[in-house]
Design goal:
Layout lengths: L1 H13 L4 H16 L5 H11 L6 H14 L2 H13 L5 H17 L2 H18 L4 H12 L9 H10 L3 H29 L10 H27 L4 H19 L5 H34 L2 H12 L3 H18 L2 H18 L4 H15 L7 H10 L3 H4 L4 H16 L2 H9 L3
Length: about 425
Amino acid sequence: MITFLIISLFIMMGIGVPIFVALSFSSIMATVFFSDFPIGITVQRLLAGIDKFSLMSMPFYIFAANIMEKGGMSRRLLDWVDSIFGSFSGSTALTTQGACMFFGALSGSSPATVSAIGALMYPELLKNNYSKSFSVGLISASGAVAILIPPSITMIVFGATTGVSVGGLFIGGIGAGLIYGFSILAYSYYYARKKNIPTLGRFNFSRFLLLTKEAAWSLGVPVIILGGIFTGAFTPTEAAGVSVVYVILITSFVYRELDFRKLYEVCIESSVTIAQVMILLAAASLFGWVLTVSFIPQMAASAIASFVDSKIMMLIIINILFLIAGMFMDGSAAIMILVPVLFKPCVDFGIHPVHLGILLVSNICIGMFTPPFGLNLFVASQVTGLSVSKIAPAIIPFFLVCLISLLIITYVPAISLFLPALAGF
């Protein structure tokens, strides 16, 4: 059964079948031909995969992110970040990364961040003497931080799959997201100094105050989400609903850029995105169920225990598996397929569940812009007009830099666990 399942999955992925079709079709065929379960149970498992309370927050975060982009909040946020980094070498590159970190804290979606920030910053990077290679590599890698800095859609999926607290994952992602973001900031500064890219001007405190006032409402979103979760005022799901109401009120009545027509367009766009994500999660859940009834998690746990004799070795294996998985599939699908197999062995080796979740999302972060199928590469291609084959070599230095940050996150668990411990998770 398992041989048929895996072979059919990779054959369909290899010929270009959409991944949700490949996952669900291979699972249904394996159930029909190699088990005694009635075919109707596959429909039940598809629905059960998305019938989870923790997944209720995902549509709200996607909806809120699209509203912020259409309602002018992301543009004001970008101008505010630029007022901070404008006096540094490589200010445009630093602004790009900084804006991605803040927009990630608003959206939770890596492709949305690449699209929103990349479309604004790519022309600016070229205008300020950055090479096409560096610019597109920066946009692809910087946007990936959105799934590490909370709120993160991928963390919600991990929490739904394992039962680990989504609030704990969100708060744990702050430290890891800062490590990831600052590593790219450091490389961008080094690149600008090496290429003698001039600064754009001195720090202007008056401009900073003006833009802070303009962006203050935008900065309120992560404060509401994380502050509410940290203080226990509301759950991550409730925070998502509150954020939607908040951004609609701000973009409609404060910034006055979101009218009824734009709101209707955002609703349609968000519905399509949410449907794509949910059907993928349902298919991945069915695939994971077939693995479970085939006793693959138990066999994998026994196999891992037979040749892995230390926590360090287990962490190395986890990193390699998820770096590779991130190259070929969506992060949510990778988690729902692999985590049911690996979660128990990891916990048995003493890896804290929150640290494990942050670690896996950090790997998927890098996979988002790694060839051959890193999703950010295709989004960046649409934004810049460059082919994926030309973008792929540009990400090499960013891959190496992010690999260093991954090692730090892996072997210094306090980065992921300090804040959750303070919050009582």
